[in-house]
Design a protein that fits this description.
Length: 422
């Protein structure tokens, strides 16, 4: 998500890398979901007639002054003559066209690489391991949704691999605190989920904008980090069974974020519940995050090394593998396959890796709804898993987001990721 969406984003959309329902981006404080050259070739030296041998006989051929001409030399000469025959403006136009086309070469190479990532067939074993998750909007804990809506959700989830619900329970205030009134229906929701969906875990989704000179959480301040950890304890006291952080934008290498995760992990481990985190995508090219940080205030990527540092401090890491600006399903799916491999390589075996699925539709420069589909993402995930760590048990997908997911999204998830008979 971008900085204006970090705390949760409903109304238009809220949540990891979003700002999406109805394509309207909303701020972190608007956290209410809407369910609604010239010269010719060289020549031989000497005269046209060979010198005689003094007796009037036929002379021997003269020795050449240089090496024989080769075809490439003649071609270069013709090109130089043609170039010099053009007008000055024609030559300038050609030069400009060449300069403009140069950036297209690496772009074309990158597109080809992603298309190749999307080629091939995934293993039939690259399917759900029962470690999947879904992000749920704030309406589940503020009284707008009740037992009837839960019954519908339960019907959606039965027979799938979804094990965790990330329920929006914030957003956090900019000082890291959480109003007691933010999630009045938490305990009732957890109890109802246990009745309808035994074995499914309910985690509190906490988020806010991270400040980089503007409004938001100042993670460099110890008291703010302490307040966030206290807010994590607060939601656990309210009945939630885990803490899910979605704090954005966190820049690659941010030590303060790592410090926060370490402190909060001590808390959750003592309580016997998981700590999970929504994570940025990983550099598809070396140090791309540095370039991104230089041109925009919401860098899109983390280094693979930093991703691994974050992963070692949690039980689950969910990659926000959407909002990629890819214009075609094949390129988007290839990108997801690459991200899946990078995430698996960086994450310890004890930590669950979840790849985000774009269960919402939007059209903007950063998200093409016709390209970023659940079907393309799932195929990419399966290809990346097949090639990298096929038998890893701690792996899943996470759907974003419940109030925007369509029947087609759910059908793609069930058909392509869950077992075919589900």
């Amino acid at each position: 998500m971008n900085a204006g969406e970090a705390g949760g984003r409903e109304v238009g959309v809220l949540g990891p890398a979003a700002g999406r329902v109805g394509t309207r981006r909303v701020g972190a404080r608007d956290v209410v979901d809407s369910d609604g050259g010239s010269g010719g070739p060289g020549a031989f030296g000497g005269s046209g007639d060979a010198p005689g041998d003094g007796d009037g006989g036929v002379g021997e051929p003269a020795a050449p002054d240089g090496p024989p001409e080769v075809p490439s030399t003649r071609r270069r000469g013709r090109l130089r003559r043609r170039w010099r025959s053009w007008s000055r403006w024609k030559r300038v136009t050609v030069i400009l066209l060449l300069l403009v086309s140069l950036p297209l070469v690496p772009i074309g190479a990158a597109a080809l690489a992603l298309r190749l990532e999307y080629a091939g067939d995934p293993s039939d074993q690259a399917r759900s391991r029962g470690r999947d998750a879904i992000w749920l909007g704030h309406a589940w804990v503020d009284g707008r949704k009740g037992q009837a809506e839960l019954a519908v959700l339960a019907q959606r989830l039965r027979g799938t691999g979804i094990h965790d619900l990330y329920v929006h329970a914030g957003p956090l205030e900019h000082d890291g605190t959480l109003p007691a009134t933010a999630h009045p229906g938490a305990r009732q929701l957890v109890e109802a989920v246990h009745r309808e969906l035994p074995g499914v875990r309910v985690q509190a989704w906490l988020g806010d904008i991270v400040s980089h000179g503007g409004p938001g959480l100042n993670l460099d301040r110890p008291r703010v980090r302490e307040a966030i950890t206290a807010s994590a304890a607060q939601v656990l006291d309210a009945g939630f069974e885990g803490v899910h952080f979605d704090l954005e934008p966190v820049w690659s290498g941010d030590e303060d974020f790592l410090t926060l995760l370490t402190a909060t992990h001590e808390l959750t481990r003592a309580r016997g519940v998981p700590l999970s985190v929504a994570a940025a995508q990983i550099d598809p090219l070396p140090s791309l995050h540095n370039i991104s940080k230089a041109v925009r205030d919401h860098p899109k990527w983390w280094s693979q090394r930093y991703f691994g540092q974050v992963a070692r401090r949690v039980e689950q890491i969910a990659v926000m593998s959407y909002d990629t600006a890819m214009p075609l399903e094949s390129l988007y799916g290839g990108y997801v396959a690459q991200q899946t491999a990078l995430a698996l390589e960086a994450t310890p075996a004890r930590v669950d890796v979840l790849m985000g699925l774009p269960a919402y539709y939007a059209n903007s420069w950063g998200h093409h709804g016709s390209a970023e589909t659940v079907a393309a993402a799932v195929r990419g995930v399966r290809l990346g898993l097949t090639r990298t760590d096929l038998h890893r048990p701690g792996f899943g997908v996470a759907l974003y987001v419940d109030f925007a997911a369509t029947d087609t999204d759910w059908a793609s998830y069930r058909r392509d990721w869950c077992r075919p008979d589900r």
